[in-house]
Amino acid sequence: MQRGAADFTVGGPTVRVTRDYLIKLRTLSTVGTDKVGAARYSSSSIVRIEALSVGINYGQIANNLPSPTRVAFLLQSLNINRVKLYDADPNVLQAFSNTNVEFIVSAGDILSLSDPAKAQAWVKQHIQPFIPQTKISCIIVGNEILAPGADGQLMSSLLPAMQNMHSALVSMGLDKRINVTTSHSLTILANSFPPSSGAFRPDLAQYIQPILNFHSQVNSPVLINAYPYFAYKGSPNDVSLDYVLLQPNQGSVDPNTNLNYDNMLFAQIDAVYSAMKALGHSDIEVKISETGWPSKGDSDEPGATPENAEIYNGNLLHRVELKQGTPMKPSVPIDIFVFALFNENMKPGPTSERNYGLLYPNGKPVYNIGLIRATLPEMTISASTINADIELILVLLLCLLNSAGDECLCLFDLCHGITDPCLRNDIIE
């Protein structure tokens, strides 16, 4: 076959591919039969990857992470379209403009945001310039502010900061697009088992009730950071590993409701629902803003292995894709943001804190949870038919090169034909 060249446009820059005959690619497939990252080949030669309904936490406490532009490319290649940030980094929000990725952003200066004028200024600076090109659906005001031993002034300022943020959104006509909430650890509960006996800590009464009233008024969710791993780490001899890993097990029956719980995460979610119900609120949804499992830990961190991390997150994705609800709320599919996208090498604390990532900073998976698979069936696409789909082709190449190693060396001829150095680095790295 005769070599040739074809020019394609990818979001502005022109990319030259130096083959005009059939480009051999390998399509993505899934592990098992679950529709997790599933790829399909259609008669029109368009490859489509099923979107994941799970979100991802994108932390940046590291000095070796790829640029936001490359992260945008990577997440689109995995078809992850919901991301939570721990700030409102303008570089990230700009990098994801005109994509399908929806963001939850965070605002951490509680004392400042308790001033209405400063909350207004924050929204004008961090939100308004990026709407609607970047999809922003939620602002988290503070993280785990009501933890035991927290600063009393911060706790008292939390609700005013949330109210001010919502008022600022209303004044700009953004309140129907963006909601306001905060995220809590499970330490807000005085009791979590059995789930039907879930109750908030008594010392939080003056804060929790008005915050729940706010959620009800503006129709925003309660966000919980839930880590069954911590329960296992604290009592590995007393807590069933299968129970915390969402593996098959006999479960535990709530004696008050006769509901059976086959995993700790669902029990934790329902404990929060019970605690809210005790305060008169059955109208607020509970979402999981963080959950995950470390792939590595110190000698005193039992269970922190890549095998367990793969099992936990893989089982979690499976249940999300099945749209499972908890025993108490079976018709409400669980809404989860997995922690985290990358291993973060500058996080303080034990080794586990730096090893929650699904991916290494170079984009390769720490373990395989079904997003991508190394054994890839072959397909062909004619270069003359993909001028409108070259961006998708480049995205697939990135996935393949990150996941299949030597299997994808046959694609390097195509990569060598890309003349834009930034795009070329994104693909080959």
From TrEMBL:
It catalyses: Hydrolysis of (1->3)-beta-D-glucosidic linkages in (1->3)-beta-D-glucans. The keyword Signal applies. The keyword Signal applies. Its EC number is 3.2.1.39. Coiled coil: none annotated. Keywords: Glycosidase, Hydrolase, Signal. It is an enzyme of class 3 (hydrolase). It comes from the Eukaryota. Belongs to the glycosyl hydrolase 17 family. This is glucan endo-1,3-beta-D-glucosidase. The lineage of its organism: Eukaryota, Viridiplantae, Streptophyta, Embryophyta, Tracheophyta.
